[in-house]
From TrEMBL:
CDD domains: PKCI_related (cd01276). A motif (Histidine triad motif) lies at residues 101-105. Pfam families: HIT. PANTHER family: HISTIDINE TRIAD HIT PROTEIN. The active site is at H103. This is Histidine triad (HIT) family protein. Residues 10-116 form the HIT domain. GO terms for molecular function: catalytic activity. It comes from the Bacteria.
Amino acid sequence: MTQQTPDDCIFCRIVAGELPSERVAETERSIAIRDINPAAPVHVLVVPRRHEPTVGALAASSDDLTDVFRLVQQVAEQEGVADAHRMVVNTGSGAGQTVFHAHVHVLAGARFSEEWLL
Ligand code: 5GP
Ligand code: ZN
């Protein structure tokens, strides 16, 4: 698996404010930004501030992991989709991961059963 160092990591640079993003919410440990290439009417990425390449690696810190899931819930409520949204985590390029800084996709507004396999 490709492992980027924080210096060349796009999400570390977004967290640091060096690259622009549409931030919809944030906590001390995580940020929530709109995906630049949305796959559904609501497509937000919840990104821990701490660099870990995958959600699995992030799980070593229960505080960070818990915070990410709390922020997912906050975003879902803010976006009015608390009762109908999907979380997606891609781990490894074979599963479609393209940015190797842990993140959770929050997707909503699509007809999940017809448009997606899962
Ligand atoms: P992955 O494929 O790694 O699970 O998801 C990476 C996601 O990050 C993709 O959905 C992609 O559209 C999004 N993305 C890539 N670069 C940027 C960026 O510079 N800004 C934002 N907001 N999203 C990005
Ligand atoms: Zn990073």
